[in-house]
Each structure stands twice: as C-alpha cells, then as structure tokens.
Amino acid sequence: MRRKLTKQQKQAAADRLAAARAKKGEPKYSQYDQSVVNLPDDHKLSFKKVRSWIKSNKEKLPTLRKNMTRKEKGSIAEYHKVQGYITSMESYLRNGIWLDLFYGEDQQYSTGWVKRWVPRYDAD
Predict the structure, then answer these.
(1) How far, CA to CA in Å, does 116 sit from each of 87, 95, 111, 112, 119?
(2) What value does the mean pLDDT of the chain take?
(3) CA 89, CA 91: separation in Å to the nearest integer?
(4) Euclidean distance between CA atoms 60 and 86, whole angstroms
(5) Residue 40 predicted with pLDDT over 90
(6) How far apart are CA 20 and CA 43, in angstroms?
(7) Residue 1, number of CB atoms within 10 A of its CB
(8) What are the two backbone dihedrals, phi and then psi, of residue 10, each rounded to the nearest 5 degrees?
(9) Is there a contact between 48 and 73 (Cβ–Cβ < 8 Å)?
C-alpha cells in the first residue's frame, strides 16, 4: 500500500527534484576527446554530425544482416564496410584522430592526404 503524502511533502519533493535537475546541467562527455566535443557544429567532423552518422549507420546494419542471410551478392562486404566505418567513427570520438579516408553519413566525401615534412638523416 502506498503512503499518502501531504501537500507540503509533495511540494518539498517537487522542489528537491527541480533542484537536482537544475544542478545536473549540460553533459560533459568526459569519455570523448575534448578537442572533438569542442568543435563547432558547422565543422565537417563535428561531434553532433559524427554521432548522427553513427546512428544512421547502425540503423542500416539489420537490413544488411538480412541481405547476408539471403546470400545477396556483395552483402557480406557491405555489412563489414559499414561495421568498420562505425568502429572508425567511434574511435575518432574517443581519440580525436580520424582514421578513415572518407567521411560523411555514407562515406561520400574524401578526406585527402596531408603532406608533412619529415627530416631526412643522410649519412655524410
């Protein structure tokens, strides 16, 4: 049997709950690399964009898995490609290093190569 609360007790409980919600504030995302979390939303590899790409690619997996069981041509490769891309994006959120050559929801954009100067040690 539930205990009956008086109006004062209900009000006190509501006040405590409101204070706890206000205290919680914005999420810190401490498990993710802060350089990624702090990127602006219009950046091509922003935190929000990458999380939405992960979500949309995870939604594709059940269909791709069904295609694998039907033994459709190329379905195994496509399934593992999407699964690898999800893993790569999750790694980017944790480490801040984009490992893939492509980006975008469907890997439609190329990242390109970055040339870095490397010192040569020639034996004279």
Answers:
(1) 26, 21, 15, 13, 10
(2) 90
(3) 5
(4) 11
(5) yes
(6) 33
(7) 3
(8) -65, -45
(9) no
What are the Cα distances from residue 37, in Å, to 17, 32, 75, 79, 104?
29, 7, 34, 28, 17
Torsion on CA atoms 108, 34, 54, 22, rounded to nearest 10: -130
Q: Which residue has the higher pLDDT, 114 or 33?
A: 33
Domain boundaries, the chain: 63-112
Work out the pLDDT band at 124, boundaries 50, 70, 90.
low
Q: Which residue has the higher pLDDT, 25 or 62?
A: 62
Amino acid, res. 30: S
Computed from CA positions of residues 44, 52, 54, 41, in that sequence, does the dihedral angle turn out positive or negative?
A: positive
